[in-house]
Amino acid sequence: MAKKTKQQLKEEGYSEEEIVLYSGGRPVKWDEEKALEIGKGLLAWLKEKEENIFFEEYLLHKGLYKQIIHDLRKKYKVFSELIKEAEAWQEMKINKNASFKKLDSNYSKFFMSSRHNYREKSELDHNIGGKEDSVKNTLEILKILENKTKSKK
Fold this sequence. Notes:
Layout: H1 6-11, H2 16-24, H3 32-48, H4 55-61, H5 67-75, H6 77-99, H7 105-115, H8 131-152
Helix pairs in contact: 3-6, 5-6, 6-7
């Protein structure tokens, strides 16, 4: 797909800043103001529509690469806080869409484990009666062992 011209972008209602970002990839020098504009834009975009979930989609529309979030996050604390909020929105949308079967649950599990450090956790109780019986069994075993050591003396 060919890149759009500046004139086409203007006709579509893009701001001068967005056109600069789109046409050149990223500004030669990022400052906190430009970073915050991207962060606030991402947050607004996530809240705009239910299907707006993936940061990469927003960045592609802006002509940016996905590594920019990592780079700006390390450089600007305020930007990092915006991204934390955006991640919370993303997490909520993935969970909500999976809960209402609007998103494949297997993909949701995969995405949440790879992006939000979710892990499936299952605990097995190998004791027949639970923890209380386990403690009782341990005490009984200790008594038996103690008796055996006494009888050997």
